Structures are given as C-alpha cells and as structure tokens.
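#struct-help
A.M.: can someone run this one for me? Single chain, 210 residues.
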Amino acid sequence: MNFWELFLIAAGLSMDAFAVSVGLGLSSSGAAIRKALTAGAYFGVFQAVMPVVGYMAGALFAKQIVAYDHWIAFGLLCFLGWKMIAGGLKKKGCLDRECPAGGCRDRECPAGERPPDGEVSLRPARMLPLALATSIDALAVGVSFAFLRVSLAPAAAVIGLTTLLLSAAGVKIGNLCGTRLKSWAEIAGGAVLALIGVKILLEHLGIIGF
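D.P.: on it. Structure tokens below:
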C-alpha cells in the first residue's frame, strides 16, 4: 500500500471525527485555536491507537487465513464505507437530544438559541466517549492492515496526524459554516474507503495492476 492510498484511508477514517468536530464548532460563537487543537488531539490519538490494536488482533489470525486476506480487507472497507455513506444520507434531526428544554445547540434550528462562547465542554468525560466512538472504524481497518502486511508505525502516524488536523479544522469550519458539510463529509469518507476496498480486491484478482 503506497502513501497516497494510506492517506486516503486516513482521510476517510477521519470523516466521522470531522463531522463530530463540526458539531462542536456549532456550539461556540468563536472557536479558538486551543479548543480546535484540543478536540483534534483527542480524536487523533484514538485514531492512531485503534489501528495498532486491530493490527495486533488481526496478526494472530493472518497466517491461518492468508488465502482470503484480500477478500476480508475488501469486505471490511466496503462495509465501513457503506455505513458511513448511509449515515451521511440519513436525515438527521436536531443535534441536541434535550432540545428545546436544554437550549438547542444547533445554529440552524430556528427555535434554538446558541450558547455563549466557551460553553462547549472539552472535558475528558465528554471527549473520551466521542473519541472512542469515532475510532471504532479504525480498529477494523487495523485488522485489514495485518492481512495486507502494511507497515504499522507509519500507517498509525498518518492516520493520527490526518485526523488531528481535519478534526481541528472541523471545529473552526463548524463555527463558520454550520451543519452543511457534515453529511457530505461522511458520504465522501465512506466512498473513499469503499473504493480502496474494491481496488485491493481487483489487484488481488489481477484485474488491475497498479
């Protein structure tokens, strides 16, 4: 797997974290650089660690199923891609489950009211569950890395750094643009993962050779 394929996988995996970061940016009247980098660090660290865990788990079984490794990688990436695309296409309601009782945090909600800047909490109690939830896909991709014999350290570093930067940007973009980019980010990320899965399978079958 070359660098650009790895980068595209990293960008695709980071789209869930990017979408959540956009939501965090919605809840602030002015997203500071420190806040954006803090959110990016949470998501980036988890996205870097999860492929390592998945790789270690996959390596235990890689030798036993070497004849099917490309099919497994294809299945995992296409499933994750389909899930992200379906999530992006699904019509979403208000971002705040307690709305309107708790004060809506959605800038585009006509009945809502935006909280003052600084109200968004980036405490571990809130961010750790979010970072874990958005990194589960990276765990599955780590399993596929073991089957494809991808060099683990560079892969984890690229995924973590890409997620950090895109998540930090997502906080600021959410503050400026609202929810418009969230669904498109999920759809684009899912399409990238699915297409790379198809490419891996076609290479294994000898249909394409690049």
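A.M.: thanks! The radius of gyration is 18 Å.
D.P.: also worth noting: Residues 88 and 183 are 4 Å apart (CA to CA).
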